[in-house]
Design brief:
The chain is of the alpha/beta class. It has a single domain, classed as TIM Barrel (Alpha-Beta Barrel). The chain contains 13 helices and ten strands. It has an eight-stranded parallel beta barrel, surrounded by five helices. The N terminus is likely disordered.
């Protein structure tokens, strides 16, 4: 069994699930490196590479490894979590073994898509991946993408495995979220950006938030204030962010986010099909919201 760093892993704080910039149809590694370098000193915990925000489903294996290498070179001091997805267990485990040489802080692993296995099947899926991985596992509970709901009981059973250390929570069930936070064996990270305040205020460890490509320092400060119990100060910073978060997810992520990053000159406004660019009305709304947030 690969050795893991599970006893020392810490996934608290704000993690940025990086977009993958494209120039035409090719990965724009220069833009990716500049993006990572710009975000690294802003107080974030680290990066999630090749998640859904990074359009990983549209990247082949060589492209994913190249993206990971670019981020590692651009921001070597920050830990990296690698996104993982699939539904063929043998192929997924083989990919995990390839990733064991990459010095990862963790793997972000959803349920297998499309298949919708039983709870026993879901538990076996995560445990097989954990067995193969040199990095600790964060379970990605996102039933609206995978079609599979991971129950509270299954997540608590997985928490008994020392190789499984955290949860990216997009499950939409606050009672389940509270139970896992109270259990305390898994670090619970908000995965829905609009739920950062409530999750961290309830005792969650932090967030993985695509919105935090923008107004990054403000997101970092909200989480720090919440973890210090300074709710009123956190709320004053948080509430103006909510219209921006809502707009960024008004069309499929990362289209709206890339529109803003392109407007800021950080990359081209390019996505891989079947993802499409944000509509004109939404772009204008986003630009206005950001301008308002930037005013003193």
């Amino acid at each position: 069994m690969p050795s893991t760093s599970s006893s020392t892993s810490d996934f608290s704080g704000l993690w940025i699930p990086l977009v993958t910039p494209f120039r035409g149809d090719a990965v724009d590694h220069a833009a990716l490196a500049a993006l990572a370098e710009g975000l690294a000193p802003l107080g974030i915990a680290g990066f999630v590479v090749c998640g859904s925000t990074g359009e990983a489903a549209a990247l082949d294996a060589d492209e994913q490894l190249a993206v990971l290498a670019t981020v590692a070179q651009a921001a070597p001091a920050l830990p990296r979590i690698m996104g993982l997805s699939g539904y063929h267990l043998g192929k997924t485990v083989a990919w995990v073994r390839q990733l064991n040489e990459q010095g990862l802080a963790g793997l972000l692993v959803p349920a297998p898509s499309y298949i919708r296995p039983s709870q026993a099947g879901l538990q076996a899926w995560f445990e097989a991946i954990a067995e193969a991985s040199a990095a600790p596992i964060l379970v990605y509970d996102i039933p609206y993408r995978t079609g599979a709901t991971i129950t509270r009981e299954t997540l608590l059973a997985l928490a008994a495995d020392p190789r499984i250390r955290g949860l990216k929570d997009c499950g939409g069930d606050m009672a389940k979220t509270r139970a896992l936070i109270a259990d305390s064996r898994l670090q619970v990270l908000a995965g829905e950006d609009a739920q950062i305040f409530s999750t961290v205020a309830e005792g969650g460890a932090g967030a993985i938030a695509a919105s935090a490509h923008l107004q990054t320092a403000r997101f970092v400060q909200v989480i720090r204030l919440l973890r210090d119990g300074r709710l009123a100060e956190a709320r004053a910073l948080w509430q103006p962010l909510l219209p921006l978060i809502e707009a960024l997810f008004a069309e499929p992520n990362p289209g709206p986010l890339k529109a803003v990053l392109a407007q800021q000159g950080l990359m081209q406004d390019a996505l891989r099909a079947p993802m499409t660019r944000a509509g004109d009305a939404l772009r204008e709304r986003l630009f206005q919201l950001l301008a308002a947030l930037s005013r003193p």
